[in-house]
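Feature request, filed as a ticket because there's no other form

It would be nice if the structure record came with a short human-readable summary line next to the tokens. Right now we just get the raw output. Example of a typical job, pasted below so the devs can see what we mean:
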Amino acid sequence: MNTAPSSKTDESTTGYTQSAKAGAKPLFRSRRGRMLAGVASGVARYLDIDVTLVRIAFVLITLVGGLGIPLYLASWLLIPDEDSVQSIAADFASSVQEWRN
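Raw output as currently delivered:
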């Protein structure tokens, strides 16, 4: 008989597992301190660093390799807003799925 605790965790209605609720904080685009879409301020809040460092990192990535702008746009589409449960991409995908049905 196996008495070890199960590694499977239940998901709540928000989609986060119990372990995510207990320790890790979710990544959201922030409404406070946003300049464009709130990606830099959300990442800064998630990493507990100054938002200026994240903005400088995006500029440097843009200047060095040119990936800063596509990375920012992808983050804007994939990271949910602080007032939303789903990202813009997930909302779009579910609306397309509803339209197809």
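Something like this underneath would help us a lot:
Residues 4-14, 16-20 have pLDDT under 50 and may be disordered.
The helical segments are 18-22, 39-47, 51-64, 68-78, 88-100.
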